[in-house]
Write a structure and sequence with these properties.
single chain, four-stranded antiparallel sheet
């Protein structure tokens, strides 16, 4: 580099400038295999240079020592990365094995079960209890359903054929009934409350950036319903208001899905539509319906009477659960669950809480009965959480921050290795996720096939979500590095605000 040669001839390079040239050359060579500085200039920069005093030598050595410490850190992180990838490879092998043999009852009873070491069985049991149980709203729904007389329950199942496994339709009708029943118009407060219920049932937040293609909530939103009313009808009103043209309903869904301000615009449309009398004209809630006809047949009681009976039963089940919670018999917890690219926090009653309660309630005894048949397929997920994969990933995240600051200080990118390592781990975890989700689906299918009154739910941690939510974690060698680096003014200026 001619400029460097000229500067060296003049002999006016400061120790900091001199040493940064050396470091940049080394970093560039490691990345590209090519030198930035000629051999002669490198000799002039290093061997032939004579510091004028100890301060110059000290400044030069501070940078060189820090660069050497960084390289040792990089080597430590390479070891960390390889250890993590090896652990993920072993976990993937175990998860794939369970996935392949999950449908052969003889195989999983007599082969897969033997894979679990005896000294890990109790820990696995506690892990499964922690991440299984009942979503609060769903359990309140099931308790209400099974408390009804058989003929009323049969009518409810005609209203909603999947009411014995899913609570969403009746919950929405119940929410409607508690606001609109007995009224001919709505107050501003009623309109606000209903709008909030409809909009907030949509999981808008916590988007994940994952490697493989995911379906956005904005893409599926207009395939869903609130009670029996299609969300696409709100979408059509939005399109009319914003002059959005479309060829068919699929085209409309696509165009609505790319709106950056979709939530704001949809909320305005919902509020105006509800205010204009949607639930008194275009869509009649069950609480105002005096008919008997459903898609599944004729109910014995009119729909409005059924809703009154349902709400009474639901209120009773809620009181029962709230009493158990208030008395400390059971506890609710929050758990993130994947919904396409969104992480939802759902309130659920964990199995640990149910078993500890020693309650004779039917939902507790049924839960305990189901655990033994299902726990086996949570073993790979349990192994992941027993490993050091997550902790190692946190260390790598912390090193990435240091590499970014080092890159800024020396003017050469040194993040390419750590970025590649994190990307490879992300890919491996996504591959692991594939088997985990198959096993989760298998558990859910077994639950469905058993046809229990109170089918348990699993909330096993999703590795993709877990990884995404991790924060950087310091370790001793990194702390020592930062302690030395903080002595340099240039390092302090790279700190993020």
């Amino acid at each position: 580099m001619k400029d460097i040669t000229k500067m060296l001839r003049k002999g006016n390079l400061a120790p900091k400038e001199r040493v940064l040239l050396v470091i940049r050359n080394d970093a560039h060579f490691q990345k590209t295999g090519k030198e930035l500085i000629s051999e002669a200039d490198m000799v002039a920069l290093t061997i032939n240079w004579k510091p004028q005093d100890y301060r110059e030598a000290e400044k030069y050595n501070q940078y060189i020592n820090l660069w050497e410490m960084f390289q040792r850190l990089e080597f430590d992180m390479q070891t960390n990365y390889l250890t993590t990838m090896l652990a993920l490879s072993r976990l993937e092998h175990t998860a794939t094995l369970f996935d392949l043999k999950k449908n052969d009852e003889r195989q999983w009873k007599y082969y897969l079960d033997r894979i679990i070491p005896d000294d890990q069985r109790e820990e696995l049991h506690q892990f499964f209890l922690q991440y299984s149980g009942y979503e609060y709203d769903r359990l309140a729904h099931l308790i209400a359903l099974h408390s009804l007389p058989k003929d009323i329950r049969s009518d409810i199942l005609l209203l909603d054929s999947i009411a014995d496994t899913d609570h969403s339709y009746l919950l929405a009708e119940e929410q409607l009934a508690r606001i609109v029943h007995g009224k001919k118009s709505l107050t501003d407060e009623d309109v606000h409350t209903l709008t909030k219920i409809i909009i907030e049932k949509i999981p808008w937040g916590h988007e994940l950036s994952l490697h493989d293609t995911k379906i956005s909530i904005k893409q599926v939103l207009f395939n869903t319903h609130f009670a029996g009313y299609s969300m696409l009808e709100f979408g059509k009103r939005l399109a009319s208001r914003d002059n959005i043209t479309y060829e068919d309903e699929d085209d409309l869904r696509t165009k609505l899905g790319v709106l950056s301000d979709l939530r704001y615009k949809l909320e305005q449309v919902v509020r105006d539509t509800v205010r204009d009398g949607l639930f008194f004209s275009e869509y009649i809630p069950l609480c105002h319906c005096t008919g008997h006809t459903t898609y599944e047949g004729e109910t014995k009681l009119p729909h409005n009477e059924l809703m009154q009976l349902w709400i009474k039963a639901k209120d009773k089940s809620e009181r029962k659960l709230k009493t158990l919670i208030k008395n400390g018999k059971i506890q609710t917890e929050q758990c993130p669950t994947r919904f396409f690219e969104v992480s939802l926090n759902k309130s659920y009653i964990s199995g640990k809480s149910l078993v500890k309660s020693k309650s004779q309630s039917a939902f507790v005894t049924e839960y305990e009965k189901q655990v033994d048949d299902l726990i086996l397929f949570a073993f790979p997920n349990y192994l992941l959480h027993q490993s050091h994969v997550y902790e190692n990933y946190q260390y790598l995240l912390a090193f990435k921050e240091v590499a970014e600051r080092m890159s800024e200080m020396i003017g050469v990118d040194v993040t390419y290795k750590i970025n590649a390592q994190l990307a490879e781990i992300d890919k491996s975890v996504e591959l692991l996720n594939f088997s985990f989700r198959h096993l989760d689906d298998h558990i859910n299918q077994m639950v469905y096939d058993n046809r229990d009154k109170y089918p348990l739910q699993i909330f096993l941690p999703d590795p993709g979500i877990e990884l995404h939510n991790l924060e950087p974690k310091q370790f001793k060698s990194l702390e020592r590095f930062e302690e030395e680096a903080s002595k340099l003014t240039e390092w302090k200026t790279t700190a993020s605000d």
